[in-house]
Amino acid sequence: MSARKPWKKILYEQQGYADNFNGPQFLQEMKKNVTAETYELWQAIGGSCVLMLQIDVVVLFAVIFAFVDTDVIGWQWLLAICFTLAVLGYVVLLYLSSPANRLDLIKDNLKTLIVFFAFGYGLSPVFRTLTETISTDTIYAMSTCMFLLSIAFHDYSVDAPIVSSSFSLNLAIFGAVCLISRLPSSNHAFAVLTLAVQLFAQWPLVRGRLVALDSRLNAAMMFVVAGVTIAGCGALSLVAAALHILLHVFICIVCPWWLIWMQPLKSTIHGPWDEAIIKDS
Fold first, then answer.
1. How far apart are CA 84 and CA 96, in angstroms?
2. The total number of structural domains that make up the chain
3. Terminal CA-to-CA distance of the chain, rounded, Å?
4. Residue 113 belongs to some domain of the structure
5. Which of 17, 117, 240, 242 is 20 to 30 Å from 30 at the Cα level?
6. Which domain, by its residues, includes 146?
7. Using CA atoms, how far apart are residues 203 and 195, in angstroms rounded to an integer?
8. Could you tell me which residues are beta bridge partners of residue 31?
9. Which CA distances in Å does 17 have to 8, 14, 95, 244?
10. How would you classify the pairing of strands 31-32 and 269-270?
11. Is 149 among the domain residues?
12. Is residue 123 part of a domain?
């Protein structure tokens, strides 16, 4: 009896083997973790700081709203602080933009400023009474949901289908408008609305320009904003400040370490059973 021919991975001739036969060399082409990306601990911590920074911004807005609602900060002082920080942020944007685009940037921002003051101040009485008939507990719950969704959809410079900076901004502004109805006057409402636009619209632009220069600035900005939010939470409640500190520890230390610890457990296999991928030459 003649020996069987060695099996070859071809389809153009009859070899005498079953259609589902796999030779011993079939698994030799298997590769593991071809597309898996590994991270260093400092990279994981840097990425977590981006998320924590946005959470801090939302918490900062909530803290300042509580201060305005209890008259710890007057609406005049809040407007003055917002105006000062807006000018500083605008100067940073102008400085980091190309000279050819500065004139267009000035024109666009002036138009936006005029529209905001006209509609924002004019509609503040409407915003303040928009949800006046809804209970305060419902307003707080709805605002919390909006801010959480805003954090989830925020643009963290990650290419993902869930990312939508405009949707995130709309959610945050809607959450702010819900809270505005709990304020005592239209002036308070306009001041808090100005704060919301500054934190959720202008701040991401400034942060993006700064991070484009050096990604390590994310961590530096997070520490600054975290210090302010923890101090603000401490002024309202020591328990809230402690919980906020624990949240920082969990997101910025525990989660990155957890990711690094679990990286070796990742195992993906690739081989001749995968669909063919056509690569452009």
1. 19
2. 1
3. 49
4. yes
5. 17
6. 42-260
7. 10
8. 270
9. 10, 8, 72, 66
10. antiparallel
11. yes
12. yes
Could you tell me the two tokens for 269? 């296999």
> What confidence tens digit (pLDDT) does each residue in 125-173 have?
887 887 778 888 999 999 999 999 999 998 887 776 677 888 898 999 9
Mean residue pLDDT of the chain comes to 84
pLDDT-derived band at 252, boundaries 50, 70, 90: very high
Structure token digits, residue 128 = 């303040």
Q: Which helix (H) or strand (E) holds 270?
A: strand 269-270
Which of these, 228, 256, 223, lies nearest to 241 by C-alpha position?
228
196 compared with 125, residue with greater pLDDT: 196
Q: At 30, which amino acid appears?
A: M
* Residue from 205, 209, 206, 178 nearest 193 by CA: 178
Alpha-carbon separation of residue 123 from 16, 34, 186 (angstroms): 82, 56, 9
Distance, in Å, from the CA atom of 54 to the CA atom of 44, rounded to the nearest integer, reads 16
Judge whether 247 and 73 are in contact, CB under 8 Å: no
Q: What stretch of H or E contains 31?
A: strand 31-32
Task: Output the pLDDT for position 2.
Answer: 61
Q: At how many degrees (to 10) do helices 203-213 and 217-236 cross?
A: 140
Higher pLDDT, 273 or 152: 152
Helix axes 203-213, 75-96, angle to 10 degrees: 40
Q: Is residue 56 part of a domain?
A: yes
User: CB of 241 within 8 A of CB of 63?
Assistant: no
